[in-house]
Amino acid sequence: MSSQGTTTDVDPIQLVSTVLDKTKAGKLIWEETADENLFIASVGGSATVEVRRPSSDYSPTAENYYYTLCLLDENGKVLWVIDEPQTLIQELFGLARKIALRIDEKVEAFLETLQKL
Fold first, then answer.
1. Which domain covers residue 43, as residue numbers?
2. Is the pTM of this model over 0.85?
């Protein structure tokens, strides 16, 4: 597990699981950024959570190929960077991307257009 700043007693697995659960429940509203590999959500107006996947120039076998979850304070200062468990963070990234880009809505519209052809 990576961390920046001070260490914390909070279990990173519990934190990632909670963010994922709140996302699934529709409590976190993910937004896209100029970086297609980064999505953000505000948490109560006093903090932000970011989920990032490696940029496309990384190989899946590269040592630094990690999805990350990053907690930031109200000023955008990094509080904690979490890179484990990869499976949960990767799932969170996919869900955040789906929400932020409104993928379901766009695919449904695409299918409707196809059916009208």
1. 12-116
2. no
